[in-house]
């Protein structure tokens, strides 16, 4: 039997094939995400404040920082201490959440300040303070029924600030979950600085990268 060849595709066949390929590409190609300045309100809260953040404890052990609660959106003067507001020109609004380490020993509140205009690039630093005093930072948020239920402004020991040109400033306030108050010169502040920096850095990277 002699071999036969298939007829060439018609214009209609080519059209429907093109439509099918376009639909397939549209379904599989990842959609463009919102620009960085819009992520704070475009992303779900679970992406802005992830349920778990890996890190290390003050002793160097690997731990997971677990979300204990997310506070309602608040005006910047209500969410940040007066000294921290000096670093927040044109602050639009503030988002806050509190984390505890997986052993429920340490707690930290993370505050995200949304700015109306871009800032000069900055770096991660421990918030500065006068000798023997705590740095001004985000106001801690307590959540009943968990490790952060006794965390307040008397209980935070230290903090960190991270800012970039992406119109966000991330600040943290770290302390103990047992409700112990800070006393000037307390050496525990130095041990808690790592927690403050880790959480500020992790949430800043998640929001801006």
List keywords for this structure.
single chain, 209 residues, alpha+beta, 7-stranded antiparallel sheet, 6 helices, 7 strands
Can you describe this structure?
The protein has six helices and seven strands; from the N terminus they run H-H-H-E-E-H-H-E-E-E-E-E-H. The protein is of the alpha+beta class and 209 residues long. The chain has one domain. It has a seven-stranded antiparallel β-sheet with strand order 1-2-3-4-7-6-5, covered by helices on one side. Strand 6 and strand 7 form a beta hairpin. It is globular.
What's the helix and strand layout?
Blueprint: H1 11-28, H2 39-42, H3 45-48, E1 52-56, E2 62-70, H4 76-79, H5 82-85, E3 91-101, E4 106-115, E5 125-126, E6 156-163, E7 168-176, H6 188-208
Antiparallel strand pairs: 1-2, 2-3, 3-4, 4-7, 5-6, 6-7
**Number of helical stretches of at least 4 residues:** 6
Helix and strand run: HHHEEHHEEEEEH
How are strands sequenced across the largest beta sheet?
1-2-3-4-7-6-5
Strand content: 25-35%
> How much helix, percentage-wise, in residues?
25-40%
Shape: globular
Number of strands: 7
Number of domains: 1
Largest sheet: 7 strands, antiparallel
Explain briefly what this protein structure is.
This protein has 209 residues and is of the alpha+beta class.
């Amino acid at each position: 039997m002699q071999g036969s060849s298939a007829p060439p595709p018609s214009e209609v066949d080519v059209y429907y094939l093109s439509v099918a390929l376009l639909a397939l590409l549209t379904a599989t190609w990842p959609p463009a995400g919102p620009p960085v300045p819009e992520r704070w309100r475009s992303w779900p809260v679970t992406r802005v404040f992830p349920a778990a953040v890996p890190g290390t404890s003050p002793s160097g052990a690997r731990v997971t920082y677990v979300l204990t609660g997310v506070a309602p959106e608040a005006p910047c003067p209500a969410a940040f201490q007066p000294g921290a507001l000096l670093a927040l020109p044109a602050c639009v609004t503030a988002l806050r959440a509190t984390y505890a380490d997986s052993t429920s020993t340490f707690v930290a509140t993370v505050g995200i300040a949304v700015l109306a205009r871009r800032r000069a690039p900055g770096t991660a630093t421990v918030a500065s303070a006068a000798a023997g005093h705590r740095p001004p930072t985000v106001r801690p948020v307590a959540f009943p029924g968990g490790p952060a239920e006794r965390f307040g402004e008397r209980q935070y020991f230290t903090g960190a600030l991270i800012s970039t040109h992406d119109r966000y400033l991330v600040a943290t306030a770290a302390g103990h979950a047992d409700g112990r108050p800070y006393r000037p010169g307390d050496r525990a502040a130095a041990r808690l600085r790592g927690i403050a920096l880790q959480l500020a850095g992790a949430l800043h990277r998640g929001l801006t990268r």
